[in-house]
Design a protein that fits this description.
There is one protein chain. With 128 residues, the protein is an alpha+beta fold. The protein is 43% helix and 26% strand. It has 2 helices and 3 strands. A 3-stranded antiparallel sheet has the order 1-2-3, with helices on one face. A hairpin with a 2-residue loop joins β1 and β2. α1 crosses α2. The protein is elongated.
């Protein structure tokens, strides 16, 4: 009686392991950028609930940058010029839009664009 063996060969297993390792390495590079973005969203929501009535845009930027420090957002990630204030569909909005470049391997980088708008209560005072 002849039995037929089934399964994966050693070479096939190594190929599957290499593909899984590649995607695991990619995830290890990308996940910190998205957790940092979650911190940005949390800090923006805090500013949105506090309101910005009577504050200048520079004060709002300073407050947001201060809150970003508590969310472990790197200072080099978001620049004050990335933080804007304007009119949106639901009223006044605080907007943050930035790019994050992540080195991957050799001369391959990931470039991720993040953009978030949060409604805020109040109006920003004009600069003096």
């Amino acid at each position: 009686m002849k039995s037929k063996q089934t399964g994966i060969t050693l070479i096939g297993f190594i190929v599957v392991l290499a593909v899984a390792g590649f995607f695991a390495y990619m995830a290890m590079k990308l996940v910190p950028a998205y957790t940092e973005y979650a911190g940005v969203v949390k800090a923006m929501n805090q500013i949105g609930t506090e309101g910005v009535d009577g504050k200048t845009l520079d004060q709002v930027r300073r407050d947001l940058m201060f809150k970003l420090g508590f969310q472990y957002v790197d200072d080099a990630t978001i620049h004050p010029s990335d933080i804007t204030f304007g009119q949106g569909a639901s009223g006044n909005e605080l907007r943050v839009s930035y790019d994050k470049q992540i080195p991957f391997m050799y001369n391959i980088d990931f470039l991720i664009h993040f953009s978030k708008s949060v409604p805020v209560a109040g109006n920003v005072a004009p600069p003096q």
